[in-house]
Amino acid sequence: MLDRIDRKILAILQQDARITNLELAERVGLSPAPCLRRVRALEESGIIRQYAALLDPARIGMGLYVIVELRLKEQTREFFERFEKRVLKFPEVTECFLIAGEWDYSLRVIAADLASYQSFLLDRLMFGDSDVASFRTTVIMKKVKSTTSLDVQAIQVKAS
C-alpha cells in the first residue's frame, strides 16, 4: 500500500513529470535521496508505468475525435485475438477496449478530418476480409474533460 507521501509524489508527478527531484523532495517534505528512492520504488513496482509528453492533437492537425463501437462477425477467442492484433497497427486508434454489451469493442480514434477518418474506416479497418460485422461511429463535437491523472486521494493509505 502507498502512504501519504507516496500519494503526494504521484499527484505531483502526474501534473509535472519533468519536475526536478530536488523540487519534488521540497514539495513532499523529504530530503532528495529518500525522495528519489521512493520514486524509483514506484517505478520498479509498476505503479509509475512511464513518462510521456502529451501532445495537443488539434495543434498538429489532428482535430477530429471519433468513438467507434463495433461488433465482430464471431465472438470467439480466435476472432478477438486476430482483431486485437490488427488494431494495434493503427496509429489513428489511441485506445481500444473490449467491452460487454451490444458491441464487442470501443475504439477512440483521432484523425485530421472526416475524409481522413472515412479513409481509415473504409480502407484500413473494414478493408478486405475484415472480421468486423458492423460498427457505429460517434463524432465528438466538443471535448469537455480529458485527463491522464488518476485520483491518488482514493488510494488506501497504509498506517505509518
UniProtKB/TrEMBL annotation:
One of its GO terms (molecular function) is sequence-specific DNA binding. It comes from the Bacteria. Residues 2-63 form the HTH asnC-type domain. Keywords: DNA-binding, Transcription, Transcription regulation. GO terms for cellular component: cytosol. GO terms for biological process: regulation of DNA-templated transcription; response to amino acid. This is AsnC family transcriptional regulator. It comes from Pseudaminobacter salicylatoxidans. The lineage of its organism: Bacteria, Pseudomonadati, Pseudomonadota, Alphaproteobacteria, Hyphomicrobiales.
